Amino acid sequence: MEKAAKEIKELKGFLPRSIAYAGQINEDFAEGIAGLYKAIWEEREDGLSIKQKHIIVFTVACSSNNIQSAVKILERLHKFGATRTEINDAMMLAAWTGGIQHFTDFSAAVLKEMEKLGY
């Protein structure tokens, strides 16, 4: 698991808990989960950039009212240079797909984190 964990830590900037927990259960299981992370987050020619992928998962988190995840992803978006306009567009798309009630629920926490990050 050490090689896979190191690769994912370099790719994502941290070791996801799922890989650490899987490693406590079975090394092959941890390698499999690490492979899934790598397949999703690795940049490929003509594919989405890391920033674009984070914008998409941010939108999904917001639209499904996963506030804790949305705030955490917002920190990643900041690291990858997302603009306030890109984040606002993602929030509006989340309102469109998830409904206004979810927008009301997630927007307060996200806007507070945006202010904290200097957006």
From TrEMBL:
<dbReference type="InterPro" id="IPR029032">
    <property type="entry name" value="AhpD-like"/>
</dbReference>
<keyword id="KW-0456">Lyase</keyword>
<dbReference type="GO" id="GO:0047575">
    <property type="term" value="F:4-carboxymuconolactone decarboxylase activity"/>
</dbReference>
<protein>
    <submittedName>
        <fullName>4-carboxymuconolactone decarboxylase</fullName>
        <ecNumber>4.1.1.44</ecNumber>
    </submittedName>
</protein>
<dbReference type="Pfam" id="PF02627">
    <property type="entry name" value="CMD"/>
</dbReference>
<feature type="domain" description="Carboxymuconolactone decarboxylase-like">
    <location>
        <begin position="28"/>
        <end position="109"/>
    </location>
</feature>
<dbReference type="GO" id="GO:0051920">
    <property type="term" value="F:peroxiredoxin activity"/>
</dbReference>
<dbReference type="InterPro" id="IPR003779">
    <property type="entry name" value="CMD-like"/>
</dbReference>
